Amino acid sequence: MIPRHPISWRHTIIAAILVLAGIAFIAVGGILIAVTLAPIPDISSFASRQVDQSTKIYDRTGQVLLYDYNRDAKRDIVPLSAISPNAIQAAIAIEDSSFYEHGGVRFTSIIRAMIVDALGGALAQGGSTITQQVVKNTLLTNEKSIVRKIHEWMLAIKLEQVYSKDQILEAYLNNIPYGGTLYGIEAASESYFGIPAKDLSVAQSAYLAAMIQAPSYYSPYGTHRAELDTRKDLVLDRMHTLGFISDAVYASAKAEKVSFAPAGGRNAIIAPHFVFYILNQLEATYGPKALTSGLKVTTTLDADLQVKAESILNSYALKNAKDFNASNDALTAIDPSTGQILAMVGSRDFFDTSIDGQYNAALALRQPGSTMKPFAYSLALEDGYTRDTVVFDTPTQFSTACKPEDINNNTAPCYAPTDYDNTFRGPMTFETALAQSINIPALKVVYLVGVTNVINLAKSFGLTSLGDAAQYGLTIVLGGGDVRLLDLTGAYAAFADDGVKNTPTGLLEVDDMQGHVLQSYASQPTRVLPANIARDISAMLSDAPARVPEYSLDSPLSFPGYDVAVKTGTTDDTRDAWVVGYTPSIAIGVWAGNNDNSPMVKSIAGFIAAPMWHDAMAYALSKYPKAYFGEPDAIPATVPPMLQGNWRIPDAQGIIQPHSLLYWTDKNNPRGPAPSNPAQDPQFPYWEYGINSWYASHPELFQGGVMLPVPLSTPQSAG
């Protein structure tokens, strides 16, 4: 028998390669035949093509037109010679750096883009060439399929065979959308900078090229101005790397401050910040081309409330600019039961270029001050503490790296904070401490429940921009993180809806040109807090007498006869002032400050932001149903005395010696027995020392060697 030799693995690989090569040869041949036979339209039709449908944005009634995205579309056709070389080079650099070398399709870039996309990365430029973009933006639909992609490649190759590179580039620059009603680089240059395209500088050209990828997302008037600036720098980097600009020009262009002309006219758009917020969402969901396909968009906006809110904020911001050096403000209003956005004001005036009014401060990341405190108190209530639990506002050193007696040392690593007025108030209930927004009690509550738990709860309420515990420590309740006004208002709306979160949304329905519903509002409630705890928080935040003396009974935070819960917040450096409040029917949040983060005159939110919040809430109360919070649970008589508001607990000799919560309660089981050895808690000596030192500094509280009780939350002079 003749022995059979095993087939070499090399032979197997060679055979596989030959088979694949054969398949590829047949496929390429088929494509070449199809390309040869495919008809190609007159290239002049690209540049002269008019967008025939507009997207209309309506308020929640479907009757008030907020904005007609494509009405009076602007397009000015210019020859390539009338376009600045800077603009041409910027577009090529970021969109198709090998435009003058390839034959219409850049297969290596397509493969690279597919790999990066699969890995979740980002590219400086995509897989589509400029020629492909001309084809898909003018001849093809938004359908995503292999067949459509192959069709795109075929037409791109054919287009390159028929027309010159300059002709294709000219058609491209005259046809691409630049946001809103702007098509082509000439219209964009005139609208954004007030100059013809032939006069565009390097920096201006880089901005326009940066917008090509997603014109609504990268709009200078939308919520992603920082991202636009970053992408502009990327364009400049590409131009420099490719040798289009010198080192000196690159440095100059990167440092240049480019100003954009105001968007549209006052009569052409209602609620502009909100409209651009919606356009960004539509573009992200359906793609840029969908915005020119005749969509009808019904939003959640209450146009009447919006107009009133804009008027209120404008008048107060102009006053605050004089009185507090606070040049700007913002407002959001949300329906707690649905999460639907009823109003969004991103600045005192969208068209005011002196304050960069087109920047949407309602979506900006800012430090929230004491508006974070309710989340810590919520956890404490969940753990078993009560609204009447006593906590001491006394000088306290919180850092175990320092000594308990270092109550006046606030230099790192020590941490001994105070309130803005440097006053300590002695024993307070949770309710009065939260209502008056006192810092020391709030920091102690955070310690009781844990920083990580506070952050996780706040994130579950929708404050997803927060980082982790290591970034903030106890200061999370003093506003150490960054949040958006829209998210913060949505979070407070969850308290209003008995602990149920409804994610803020601005869309009710999106219909295509034929009337088919593409998207409609669907309720997606999520419970983030037990109902009884949410009602406790609402009771604490709506208790006007508990705010005294921090705020009088007739302060802008009070609405006699109505259930209105409210919380203020001011950052230590007075860069941000907040007021967020709610009824069961509506939640409204306002922010005041400066877009450039410069400080205001040192004050508190009650003076800076509360008056405008009051007027907006008063108007909302006049038009939305009057409703009341559910009654909070009664505090059981069986809980420890400190949880009932009684800190006057005598010792065996009948002497009232005040002690901290850590002495009387186990922080992990506050309704259980007192800890047998409270000194095991590392904070115990620090809290006790603070209480004793405060009493020692107030001899008027002694009589016959016995410490006299102090009325709860009575203000005392600084110790």
Structural write-up:
With 719 residues, this protein is of the alpha+beta class. The protein has 3 domains: 44-51 and 73-268, Biosynthetic peptidoglycan transglycosylase-like (Penicillin binding protein transpeptidase fold), CATH 1.10.3810; 341-397 and 407-623, Beta-lactamase, CATH 3.40.710; 641-707, no CATH class. 39% of the residues lie in helices and 10% in strands. It is elongated, with a radius of gyration of 32 Å. The termini are far apart.
* The CATH homologous superfamily of the largest domain: DD-peptidase/beta-lactamase superfamily
What is the CATH class name of the largest domain? Alpha Beta
Rg, Å, rounded: 32 Å
> Which bin fits the share of residues in helices?
25-40%
- Overall pLDDT confidence: 86
Class by SSE composition: alpha+beta
- Tally of contiguous helical segments: 25
Main sheet: strand order: 2-1-5-11-12
Our estimate of the beta-strand percent is: 5-15%
- Gross morphology is elongated
Tell me what the CATH architecture of the largest domain is.
3-Layer(aba) Sandwich
Measured between the Cα atoms of the first and last residue, the distance is 108 Å
> Would you give the CATH topology of the largest domain?
Beta-lactamase
